[in-house]
Amino acid sequence: MDTLVSIRNLKKTYQRGPEKVEVLHGIDLEIPKGDFVALMGPSGSGKTTLLNLIGGLDNPTSGEIEIENQRIDRMSAGQLSQWRSNNVGFVFQFYNLMPTLNAQKNVELPLLLTKLSASQRKRNAEIALQLVGLAERGKHRPNELSGGQQQRVAIARAIVSDPTLLICDEPTGDLDRQSAEEILALLQSLNRDHGKTIVMVTHDPKAADHARRTIHLDKGTLAANGSGH
User: Fold this and answer.
1) Where exactly are the structural domains of the chain?
2) How far is CA 74 from CA 51, 59, 71, 77, 187, in A?
3) Which among 86, 108, 141, 171 could disulfide-bond with 125, CB atoms 3.0 to 4.6 Å apart, if both were Cys?
4) Which among 173-182, 206-215, 218-227 has the top mean pLDDT?
């Protein structure tokens, strides 16, 4: 299987007042195309930092991050922003939807950076909403949708540009168990049926069970690689 993400000797240090805190200590990791990886570990283990580095939201202190043969650790802020909009879809714990926009307009937001016409943007948003099972809810605003439905809109927004990589930070952290199961089944389907490579941070072992494999972080190092399913 082709490697999508290749990480070598990745380190991340933050300056907190007078002291330096090393969050990641020389991580080596390969994620094949089409994988679904759950990142687990105690609070402060570095999993969200690692997720943000893979998604190009942050820069490493040292080490290499190569995604589809592109060294994103060498990119300028402008290049990284362009790379993210072309290659990565983000799903967050609290949906991050615009409350004044309906579901369809929320899903269209990433497409405003493209050369697509208004009618093409609308069509692509409708297709993405259909894919997440919300074709009938395009005109509803976030406050007219349940938490699970809002997260589906957020996933539709993440996939509307057809990114190679989906980055999910605690995507079920704010949901009841049934809604969480539905969102995880949707992510599994995007991975299995649509070839999306997914990296998901979660505290929930039941959520991690939906991934193909689980990677455990502990104090900034990889503890063990689970084989997953």
Assistant:
1) 3-225
2) 17, 9, 6, 10, 30
3) 108
4) 206-215
